[in-house]
Amino acid sequence: MKEDANYFEVNKETWNKKVGIHAQSEMYNLDAFKKGKTSLMPYELKALGNVKGKLLLHLQCHFGQDTLSWSRMGARCVGVDLSDEGVKLAKQLNTNLQLDAEFVCCNVLDTSKHVSETFDVVFTSYGTIGWLPDLRPWAKMISERLKVGGIFYIVEFHPIAWMFDYVDGQPKMTYHYSQDDVIYEEYEGTYANQDSKMVSKEYGWNHGLSEVVNSLIEAGLQIEYLNEFDESPYDVFPGLVKTESGMYKMNNQLFPMIFELKATKI
């Protein structure tokens, strides 16, 4: 749709601006990463385990830290992202760290037009599906890029978390759990640097768990498990407190912060 193309262009412009800010942020901690610290979190490390020798496709990879972390663990990786600046930095990091990952700049829904090989693992994480108006073409693409018996794994913020408007700092329940209409937000700063003066202009969509599950089933994947968790590895919502595990949760936790889903192509 022409309208969707405009939304993607606005989002791409915002993500291009975010790259430089995020690369210097404490949250992404690029210096520690360059010295060998993994950017991967406990959920995905536990779910995918030993990836040595596996072909891994990372969707919506930003500037490639997670892609390169999997590469360090022995996977042969391809990362895909909408942002030219993100892919440019990912390629620089790959060269500087002497790794063998590849990076492709395209809309994630167009991945199959740019990447023809099939993979043992397709991976995506934290703040990805909300940029997509419809999950059916996304799930179809995932199925196309997986080998038979290959694994798809997503770890993502829970749909309930996206029902709130956080722009004014005080969460206000505003949006439907599974909202078809596009959501537009314009605000100063980013999740990784709230003091930044950059203006984020973003179009997004809310997807309930049934939409995630059903789109993957329709695309020929068999769901292995779906889990929901109270703790987030990132301090990206207002009023979170750090737990003993080093993750974050709300003071009065009434809904999950994270879900993970693992599926196999049959």
From TrEMBL:
Q: Where is the Methyltransferase type domain?
A: 58-154
Q: A Pfam family in this protein?
A: Methyltransf_11
Q: Which InterPro entries match?
A: Methyltransf_11, SAM-dependent_MTases_sf
What GO biological process terms are annotated to this protein in UniProt? Answer: methylation
GO MF entry, a single one: S-adenosylmethionine-dependent methyltransferase activity
What's the name of the protein? Putative SAM-dependent methyltransferase
Q: Which UniProt keywords apply?
A: Methyltransferase, Transferase
**Organism whose genome encodes this protein:** Winogradskyella psychrotolerans RS-3
**CDD domains (UniProt xref):** AdoMet_MTases
